[in-house]
Amino acid sequence: MSPSVERSSSVSFSCLITHSFRRPLPGHAHERSIRVVELALPQSASFAGSSFSRRGGGAFSGGSAPLNMWHGASVQRNAVFSAFVGEVAASPNIFAGEVAVVVILSSLFERGERWARRQFASMGEETGGKILDALFKEVTCLGFIGLLLFLVTKSGAADALAESLLGPLSGKVEHPLAETFETVHIMIFLLLAVLLFQAAAVFVVSRQVEACWTQYERTRAFGELDACLESKCAEAGYLERVSDPTAPRGTQLLLKKAFVYGDSVQDRVQLRQLPLHKLIMWRAIRHEFLFPSSRAGTDTEEILQVPDPTLFSFEEYLRTRLGTTVLALVEVDIGSWFLALLLILPLTYICSSLPFDQVLSLQCSLAWLLAAAALALTLILEEDTYELTPGVPEDMRQTLRLFSGTSFQMLRRCRLPGYKHRSLAGRRFRPGLADAEEKGQNAKMSLPPRFAAGPLAEATGWPAPETYRRLLRLLAFFQAVCVTSLIVTYLSEPLESWLDIGLYCLAWAEWPLMLFQLVPVLLRRLTLRTSIEDQKDASVIRKISLKSKQSLIRDLRRLVQLTSFQRHARLNCKVWASYACLRPGSWSENQAEAARNLGLQRFNSLPEAEQLEIWALFAGWDADNDGVAHTQEIVEMFAMMGYPEGKEEAAESLIRLVDDVGDEALTWTKFKSLFGLALSEQSCSDEVKEGLGCIFAKCAQDGASRVSVFELSEGLLKVPIFLSPDDAANLLHSYFGQAMPSITKAQFVEWVIAGGSFEAKGAEHE
Description:
Layout lengths: L12 E7 L14 E8 L4 E3 L10 E3 L3 H26 L1 H32 L2 H29 L2 H10 L10 H41 L11 H8 L2 E5 L7 E5 L9 H7 L3 H16 L23 H17 L3 H19 L3 H31 L9 H8 L4 H6 L22 H4 L9 H4 L12 H28 L5 H32 L8 H34 L17 H16 L3 H14 L6 E2 L1 H10 L6 H12 L7 E2 H14 L4 H14 L6 E3 H8 L8 H12 L5 E3 H9 L13
Antiparallel strand pairs: 1-2, 3-4, 5-6, 7-8, 9-10
Helix pairs in contact: 1-2, 2-3, 3-5, 3-9, 5-9, 5-16, 5-17, 9-16, 9-17, 11-16, 11-17, 16-17, 18-23, 18-24, 19-23, 20-23, 21-22, 22-23, 24-25, 24-27, 25-26
InterPro entries: EF-hand-dom_pair, EF_hand_dom
Organism: Polarella glacialis (Dinoflagellate)
Protein name: EF-hand domain-containing protein
């Protein structure tokens, strides 16, 4: 039945519109009619119509055209929701199930986000959190856009706009604007999903890059282990080890061939594929960063100096800078969107007139064109970085002398608490260098090619660091657009011929090549290029320097926990810690193996950052670079903690606890097992507080209850821990959240147990 509209002199008209639609109900043979919607119309409007489809189909008469157009939109809107109400009334279980699914998926999504943020926080990865922030900012923006599009399309405004732009369409043909709005919106969401996956892949790749840098920084110059530079040079054929009983270590190193970076671009590209060349160039850049050479005669600006190279981690500095580079791949600025729009529009018009196989060919060509552009950018970046890389001597024996004692653990060795008479440069553990011993006295690295050629201002022709970042951001964004287009192609058109399948798979093959082969090189080179010379970041250098000094406080806490662990065991008459255990058979290898396995299990449960710092402590004690820490280090540690007598026996008892092979050697496996046991059982016990109290007493003069930062700095030298008064003041301020010119014993104990954390006191309760 058609609704009737009666005109009256009142302010408004009301009409009851009966919208009937047919839907078979489960278990019922009849059809249901739903009477809905009382629509208020202005006084000047007139309405005529008999029935309405879901998209609307009413006719309007009287009044102005725009007014009638928007009233038609209102009818469409009510028809849409009346259909929805009818569907809910017909099948309420389906509606409840859909709502439940949405709620469950939302909950899982939020849980996944929180889990990811907790993982990043536990790993100390600030970059991961920033990546999530950037992506969720884009997702939130698209969510609001989606809500706006929903209101526009369901209210009928989109159809009305389409009629005004395209004119009325005859028959039952629907206006395409509403559908295209939703389709484009979903495609953009799909693009963000691809960006999210790319961000996850880039994060994994960046972790691999960081691991590579960590290995580079901790590679020792001399030694018999395969991981040291001496062994790598011998394996690569640059040096030869010859047995000589009269030489130090019973070995002479002879030169076999010269080491060069390469005379041409082609030579350098080929040589840079060798792992040893990558390592040498990275260490040369690091050496110049920590110990800048004199550049007399050049007009370069004064290079920023690292305050204390012995406590500076170049790898951690690059890791922080790497976060900026990774974010450049994830964040999408408005310029990238507009540039993508300018490039995609003509391609869309071209593809609309091409056969399907030619469209696939175009997609495949564009995908590999992106890979070629990334490869070209990689080569440019590598050459640009080479221009800033200092030259090393062609005789690798002299290069080893230059790098001797400059690894992370050897530089830090002089600052570790414990033994005061350590070998710092490792000269006692070098092999014989034959004629290079005398020649190496004056050996040094040459200036980077860019500085050797003249002032930096004259070395033009290379892109600025910010240009590199923009190009890398565009490459990542267009790569995501390319992958999104491949997904849309698969959903839009079936692959019928073998040619279609081949082209489609070939286009997909470019993506993993880009992510896992080209992107790592781009990340390494761009991070290096934007972090050295005139691009040094003073704020990051200060932050890393202070964090490195903070690690000394954590080392002090761990050593106190280790000595307290032994003292607690001896006071409680543990078999392995008592002097009676010196008798044969009192502590068996099976018992030691069980203790070692328990310690390893507890060590593996420690945070990754904690494990790395314990390894750095072990590496500092392994002066010979033979994988065994010196027992004298533990003896001196007990002496530092107030063991005037019995310190040798105490050190031996700790080794005995985990010595499952009976060789009395403190290897890395036994070392981490010991710390796993000690740190888990002596986190903040009374013995630990008592040990820290002894250290505080070394700082306090005449038994004073408070010590100033100057007294604290001077007293820690007796441990020895080298902290200047400024360093001590900064660390105390970072933890307590206020200036601390002096501290009490209780505050000192609290600060050391907390590890001199950068988080202010009480931050964990917020």
